Amino acid sequence: MEPIVKKWYDSLERGKIMGTKCKDCGNVDFPPISVCRKCRSRNLEQIELSGEGTLLMYSVSGDTPGAKFAPFTPFAYGQVLLKEGPLFATKIEGVPINTPEEIEKGNKELPAPVKAKIIDGVGGMKVVVFEKI
Amino acid sequence: MAKNPCIIGVGMTKFGNLLETPELKNKTFQELVAEAAFEAYDDAGISPEEIDAFIVGNMLPQTSLSNSQATNCSDWLGLRYKPGFHIDTACSTTLTGIGIARDMIASGKYKNILVVGGEITNSYPDMENDFPLDRKPLDRVKLWKWTDYAVDHNYAYQHFYGFDALIGVFGLAYMKTIGLSFKEFDRIMMQINKNVRLHASMNPKAICYEDGTLEEEAKREGFSSVEDYWKSDKNPFIAWPVRKKSVLNYADGASAIVLSSEPKKFTKKMPVEILGYHWAAENWPWDGSSEKIAFEGAYKMAGIKPKDIDYLTVHDCFQSAYLTSSEIAGYLEPGKAWKAILDGRTRFDGDKPMDTSGGRHGVGHAFEASAGAETYEIVKQMRGEAGKRQIKKPLKIAVQHNAGYALHYAVTVYKTAK
């Protein structure tokens, strides 16, 4: 089996957001994984994703785990349904987070379209976040 | 006569903090699990000689100073030369162990099995000599770093994952599904916590026992109303819309369960039969389907319907589970769990009792000991031995639901045996 995780982070370095598509049932998983989550087939291909998705809801980071993401806090953390089908959760940009009232109001405006963005995460490692359009 | 293996004995330590709680102070991991096991042996009227096998749960070797826990615990449990092993499904572990023990007994090779779980979450040995009694307080950052090994590190942990934000999203999901405003949700969460603390105030083994009810605590803190206390800076958001008091309290402790195929040989107490169980695991990013699968599998094996359930325990390390899991279980009407809670129906004296021990906030959460502590409560309730918090109606069928981090759902169906 080829290394899957390393290949994914390497492709982020090149600005590409990849997923796996099942050649048997057509299901798309994100990020790439060894076996199709839907039909359990190993017959997968790597595909580039559109980066388009829908933000379903978001909350705001609290005090755990704390240290690791300290340079980023406070940040919104939300659930995104990708255009190709899979669910993902990560940092969300472009949504209000300063007060409980703002967060409640922000959530009332959902679902709303978001676009993937590659940023420098902890230690400068490339990771995927979503930005409200 | 019960058709299935039965629980004949239960035990648990006080849940608290090894550095502070008088009942726990200066004890090691092996002493904690032995104390819980001895109570279970005595409760069952069984001697260790008659235990045929044992299963040990423990998640954090960094605090227990133990892996290969079965070998580390065998002699302390009085089980030298007996077959034993360690299992780990995080916070559902002891319930998973009960399912394994049930099937080991059903295979015919074993008659009596001990399932024990222990955890230390508040302190760890930080000295070079790794001596279990040289302990220092464990800060939350380090605790979660170790606990989060239960979460995907290939992707999730690099993508801003944190337990707090996750429970914020879980709470929000219920709010959105039902169409509740934050104000309504907050009021419901306060009522849940009032129930949790009421139950814990009647349970001497609970970490919150000495603190009394939420109303008593509010008064002590100088608040004239419990609502003002709930909304004050004493109860900040852990992740909006969920406040600090709506999640677990970290605890140290142990629990133990003895299962047997021949209850009458040892005890006159009412045996609790394991009618059925099911487990389901899923990895991040979760869609939560495993929860429903676990309930359905357990009901099918047990041959019961949700309407047969007299008592339900849900995994409440985040208390929005009282809303979501009770509905998925079919115990409370879909979309109406919030109303049942506001009407007091889920209290020990209501018609739909839930988590009468005080749960993972009230009793406290000692990760791989907690499911066993919930089984302990179920057995005490089914026998009518729960004291002040005894459910008044007779209990025939009880269901226990646990979520191992992250995620391993386990559901077990119990029945009072004759």
From TrEMBL, chain A:
Gene3D superfamilies: 6.10.30.10. InterPro entries: ChsH2_C, ChsH2_Znr, NA-bd_OB-fold, Thioester_dehydratase-like. PANTHER family: BLR3430 PROTEIN. Residues 12-45 form the ChsH2 rubredoxin-like zinc ribbon domain. Residues 47-96 form the ChsH2 C-terminal OB-fold domain. This is Uncharacterized protein. Pfam families: OB_ChsH2_C, zf-ChsH2.
From TrEMBL, chain B:
Keywords: Acyltransferase, Transferase. It comes from the Bacteria. The keyword Acyltransferase applies. Residues 7-125 form the Thiolase N-terminal domain. The keyword Acyltransferase applies. InterPro entries: Thiolase, Thiolase-like, Thiolase_C_2, Thiolase_N. Residues 294-413 form the Thiolase C-terminal domain. GO terms for molecular function: acyltransferase activity, transferring groups other than amino-acyl groups. This is Acetyl-CoA acyltransferase. It comes from Candidatus Nealsonbacteria bacterium CG08_land_8_20_14_0_20_38_20. The lineage of its organism: Bacteria, Candidatus Nealsoniibacteriota.
